[in-house]
TrEMBL record:
Gene3D superfamilies per UniProt: 3.40.50.2300, lambda repressor-like DNA-binding domains
InterPro entries: HTH_LacI, LacI/GalR-like_sensor, Lambda_DNA-bd_dom_sf, Peripla_BP_I
Name of the molecule in the record: LacI family transcriptional regulator
Domain spans labelled HTH lacI-type: 7-61
PROSITE patterns the record matches: HTH_LACI_2 (PS50932)
Pfam families, alphabetized: LacI (PF00356), Peripla_BP_3 (PF13377)
Keyword S-adenosyl-L-methionine appears in the UniProt entry: no
Sequence intervals crossing the membrane: none
Length: 338
């Protein structure tokens, strides 16, 4: 072709002397066509590097091979690792993903849902969502909630997947106890998140099983779960004369910030203060000292969510509506054993 415009299915059809419908049948390998026709069409596709517009196709058919993925913070390694696993599974199955980052904002999440509805995506995977995706889209679409459990018995195909956050909190309590901590402080992630509640409840349950009750004022929820928040909270605890010999930080970022302040104040870890984080992101291994943390497999969560979504968009009902993946403690140098 002489011009530089993108080749269309109609162009391929005219070159090969067939209909657009025949080109579509060759591409999708359905319907009837001769081997000679297939060879001619495929040679033209390769020669002109024709790429079917799957999004436009989806808009025409009110469906597509695109799955919407909504996360609160794509810069967080937990979510980026999850997305990479999803993308690999979908790519291998001729699906693609469109990613929306809400920046932990309810308003942004609602805007993302509006765009998802306009795109007529095949399904939605939503992590740490505060809104009901099915209500927001105003139509039945296969939906998977990550780190949020909802009623899966109403409103079409829906499933939930999460790591065992309650168990993770219990493991953190046990580890601090065995490190000698009797006056711990909890620094939570987002106060409104069900993940935060599960981790905190698990921690408190773990302490109770050891005969220790934690005063509610020793549970601190920052506005944002970040390294700076961890630094500021521990600085405030020290400035206010709060006595503590253990910290359960419900994200590794908070824990790394806490370690920075403890080091700056010459408080020895773990001799004076034992610290346990959560997530086991790469940063945990390179903290100073290396951080004991609760490991959750974000890659496995993403892979499992993508495989489940493929089943659902292909017409199958989810075999498991609520999936909980195991967690484990990774002991490093911020805790000790006598």
């Amino acid at each position: 072709m002489a011009d530089d415009r993108q080749v269309t299915a109609k162009d391929i059809a005219e070159m090969c002397g067939v209909s657009v419908a025949t080109v579509s049948r060759v591409i999708n390998q359905n319907g009837r066509f001769s081997p000679e026709t297939e060879k001619r069409v495929r040679e033209a596709i390769e020669k002109y590097n024709y790429q079917p517009n799957s999004l436009a196709k989806g808009l025409r058919k009110k469906r597509s091979n695109v799955v919407g993925v909504v996360v609160p913070n794509i810069s967080n390694e937990y979510f980026s690792s999850m997305i990479l696993a999803m993308q690999q599974v979908f790519f291998e199955n001729d699906y693609s993903i469109t990613i929306f980052n809400t920046n932990n904002s309810v308003e942004m999440e609602r805007a993302c849902h509006a765009q998802l509805s306009a795109l007529s995506v095949a399904g939605v995977i939503s992590a740490n969502s505060r809104e009901d995706v099915r209500d927001a889209l105003k139509r039945v679409v296969p939906t998977i909630y990550v780190d949020r459990f909802v009623d899966t018995g109403v409103g079409g195909k829906v499933a939930c997947i999460s790591s065992d956050n309650h168990r993770g909190g219990m493991l953190a309590a046990q580890e601090l106890w065995e490190s000698g901590s009797r006056n711990p402080v909890v620094i939570t992630a987002s106060a409104e998140s069900p993940v935060t509640q599960a981790r905190t409840d698990g921690f408190l349950a773990g302490l109770r099983s050891l005969g220790l009750e934690l005063d509610p004022d020793r549970i601190i929820s920052p506005v944002k779960s970040s390294i700076d928040a961890g630094k500021e909270i521990v600085s405030s605890l020290i400035a206010n004369g709060v006595e503590f010999d253990g910290l359960f930080c419900e994200t590794d970022r908070l824990a790394v910030g806490a370690l920075e302040t403890l080091s700056a104040r010459y408080m020895l870890v773990p001799d004076e203060v034992a610290v346990v984080g959560y997530d086991d992101i790469t940063l945990a291994r390179f903290a100073r000292p290396p951080l004991t943390t609760v490991h959750q497999d974000s890659h496995k969560i993403g892979e499992r969510a993508a495989l489940l979504m493929l089943e659902m968009v292909r017409g199958a009902e989810p075999k498991e509506a609520h999936i909980t993946l195991p967690v484990g403690l990774v002991r490093r140098e911020t805790t000790r054993r006598e």
